[in-house]
Prior knowledge:
Oligomer: single chain
Shape: globular
CATH superfamily of the largest domain: Type I PLP-dependent aspartate aminotransferase-like (Major domain)
Radius of gyration: 21 Å
Bound molecules: pyridoxal-5'-phosphate
Strand order of the largest sheet: 4-12-11-10-7-5-6
Amino acid sequence: MAEAALFDTFARAPLRFERGEGVWLVTEGGERYLDFGSGVAVNSLGHAHPHLVEALKAQAEKVWHTSNLYEVPGQETLSRRLVGKSFADKVFFTNSGAEALECAIKTARRYQYVKGHPERFHIVTFEGAFHGRTLATIAAGGQAKYLEGFGPKVEGFDQVPFGDLDALNAVITEKTAAILIEPIQGEGGIRPVPKEFLAALRKICDDKGLLLVFDEVQTGVGRTGKLFAYEWSGVTPDIMALAKGIGGGFPLGACLATADAASGMTAGTHGTTYGGNPLAMAVGNAVLDVILADGFLENVRDVSLIFRQGLAGLKDRFPDVIEEIRGEGLLLGIKAKVPAGDLVAAMRGEHMLGVPAGDNVVRLLPPLTVTVEEAREGLARLEKAAEKLSSAELKKSA
Ligand SMILES: *Cc1c(COP(=O)(O)O)cnc(C)c1O
């Protein structure tokens, strides 16, 4: 039921979680739920990870916030580590994904501006994209349901169908500054972009002086079994937005760029009050301590393989419930034959959490720390949920 003193923007499930441990969430009533949603790909190390708890507590006892009027040592460390593991030379820290995208969009526009092309401010995006809920990012995402009633759409975003190179080439003009894309669409339904398509985007950007911007807010920081999803394609962007998993549950985002792409972002052009504060940096660095440890990402890939094989088995057993398994690493989606909302509800009936997405998909995003045993537990619960929805099974029990 909607709480009268809150905006009615969310349709919440009637679950009240009091605490969590690893892959489990525990309600006020003491019921345990297997969390394969991770707060929408946020709790990358699960709940109450001891290293994160320790890092947050230790920082809380020193200093929480100083503003960006002063040097923040944690920002220096975290930016150096991100740069060392990516294509980028420069990092700007934010509190959220949408803000990381705002920074990416502003960085791309400023780049063209300082290169003598103020007319180049248009950014090409793709149908099914999700880039956040600010005025600019709903324009970038281009979804009518998120734009309706919020006044004129922010100018300068041109959307083309997913995977359509001809439409892309047709929409690029002398006003185009950049191409913005998620390497795997998350909210859009775990739709991977073929690597040939990403390579084609890279070439178009190089040929025409455009910047390639990847939104890795959902795919980044180990979610796909590589630190960044772009590593699977071998195609590197000029600018990249991160958030979600990088904070492990603490609000943290980042915009990464090459030195050239960031060349317009000079002193005073952009800012943030909270972005990169000492608490956030302590947690972000602690997340990387774990994810960059030897063998961690390899383990994500190994568990993913086993989990996926199990999901493929469920698809064969319940073809009237499951149409397709999609995704990479632990960014997985079940394209359902039944309404995705029904599958999420049936899973919840088995005390398992998943996240609905577009294209009638249920996302399975367990913490990256999930064990093989826990993945098997997830499969067992999914099997029971599918059984309840399968018409063959329904007939048998009738
Ligand atoms: C979640 C998400 C965003 C927005 O992040 P917020 O932290 O909600 O602002 C942007 N892009 C992608 C791909 C996302 O998954």
